[in-house]
Amino acid sequence: MSKSSRVTIHDVAREAGVSLSTVSKVINNRYGVAAATSARVQKVIAELGYEASLVAQSLRNHETKVIGILVADLEPFSTELLKGAAEGVRGTGYELVIYSAGGRTEARDGWERRYLSRLSGTLIDGAVLVTPTIVSAQYGAPFVAVDPHTGTSEIPTVDADNLRGAQTAVHHLIELGHRRIAMLTGRPDLMSAQLREQGFRTGMAQAGVPVDESLLLVGDYRADISAEAAKALLTMDEPPTAIFAANDISAIATLEVAVDLGLEVPRDLSIVGFDNVPESVLCTPSLTTVEQPIREMGLRAVELLLQLLRAESIPATHLTLDTRLVVRQSTSAPRR
Question: Which pLDDT band, with edges at 50, 70 and 90, does 54 fall under?
Answer without folding.
Answer: very low
